[in-house]
Amino acid sequence: KQCKLLGHALKPLTVLKIGEPIEFRVDASDAGTGKLEVSAVGARGVQARVFMAQGDRPGIQDIQLDPIRSGKYRIGVKWSGQHVPGSPFLIRIFPGADASKCRAYGPGLENGVVGKLTTFTIETRNAGSGVLKVCLNGVKDAFKVEVKPVSSQDVR
Prior knowledge:
156 residues; mainly beta; five-stranded mixed beta sheet; four-stranded antiparallel beta sheet; 11 strands; elongated
């Protein structure tokens, strides 16, 4: 019997960001007695911190990674000195979003007139990966907000 790797962070194309939990599980419930070792090594040997905790049932270990830099990391998972199936694997860590690098401008933020359509622009190009949310304060259902990219080639 062997260990199994489980979790969202292991799926291809998963967007992983600094500052957000990067988690997966190791199921060693059928692997017998052994020792679990997990490493996460990035460019130039930079190592992410690895936290291991007993899972919700015997033989399950919850793993959390805390990288200090964005980039590619090689994750090694060993049971009794041997790589488990699927190990090593690569993950890519993206910079976290920085809202202070967003910029908003335009007539809709300066001189709005009741009943007249207006627009404004929010630039997120330098803010890193994230989700843009627009909130307006005022009378409930008084605003209709339509968010669309300025260009289909550059949706940021």
